[in-house]
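Thread: "does anyone have the structure for this chain?"

Original post by V.I.:
We have the sequence but no experimental structure in hand. Need at least a predicted one for the grant figures.
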Amino acid sequence: CQITLEALLLRDASGKVIEPLKMDPERVREAIVEYGVGSVLNVNWHTLDLETWEDVMTSVHKPFTSNESSVPVIYGIDAIHGANYTVGATLFPQQIGLAATWNPEIVEEAASITAYDVSASGIPWNFSPVLDLARQPLWGRFFETFGEDVYLAKTMGKAFIKGYQGKDVGHPHKVAACLKHYVGYSYPLSGKDRTPAWIPDRMLKEYFLPTFKAAIDEGALSIMVNSGEVNGIPVHANKELLTTILRDEYGFEGIVLTDWEDIIKLYKDHHIASDMKEAVYLAINAGIDMSMTPNDYSFNDALIELVKEGRIPESRLDESVRRILTTKQQLGLLENPYPNFDDFPKFGSQEHTNKSLQAAKESITLVKNKNILPLSTSTKILVTGPGANSLNYLNGGWTHTWQGEETKYNTIGKKTI
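Reply from O.Q.:
Generated one for you, tokens below.
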């Protein structure tokens, strides 16, 4: 089970999270010691400084370092275009901008610097890259993809894996990659996020699966699953996609992780299960290894009941436990659950900033020039519209907050258009 950071934070008498952020030792103990939660993530929070991240990581791992728990948690985060949840980290163009560079080397360097900054925050697991193919123009998450071309997306995806994981993913400056959202997530019929996709088998294999296959072959350690359904079956309950293709055909041995509350959605939204217990039964037997539940322990309770009843065999449980433990071992978490926080001298450095600038310059795309460029240095230009003086529009989503809309967390000193 994976629980959200917010479930572990200290709160006031009214239940509101106290700021500056502090961990609640009792909540941490309940999650990790009593419920055996093996992973923590955060999305619905804002950017934190390195000092706060150090406090979060040492607190989250306290049950392991004090021997109350025999296995460390694995912490995951969405660092989509740089370590966007860490103050002072280097941001890069969004994936669609990096794709426009046509330069796998700069893309690999961007991923490597992101891994460095994420590691400096004490986090070993990044929910990136997005390998969904952008072929439904109504869909709102184009900016997170490498575009519509299979070959380009495969090439850039492989570069990301190399940058994140390196030759030794256990190195203190590297992180585990997580491919998302397997599969067909970006092709909903209505264009609305997390809604049904209808994809012929040939199209699925020719367009939407190859990006994931290439990244698996590159050694990616984890995969996050499409929240919607493909051809009438929610992917979280689709054994054909999660086991037959992913495990048997592609040989993937890493962690298969749900997206936000997606096992719960099997009965609340998709209506293919009568309750949480039935949803867990369908998802685990289809091939899910870890549930991003993430606000309660309903998954834990249901899974334990199902195993005791024999509906989910212990051998199936062992498969997922082995995959999760193997990943934690590969990352070196069993020896050192968090890094030496003083071992990141290049964090926020000019060297990293220069790479970001290079990526931004190479991402610029000239669509049409009708005697406008080059601009004259002797004339003034009116820059207008909602994006003219907005860092939010310039940076996009996943910038300091989940949707990137909170202006008070914007990077100080950066210029708008």
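V.I.: this helps a lot. The chain has a mean pLDDT of 97.
O.Q.: and The radius of gyration is 21 Å.
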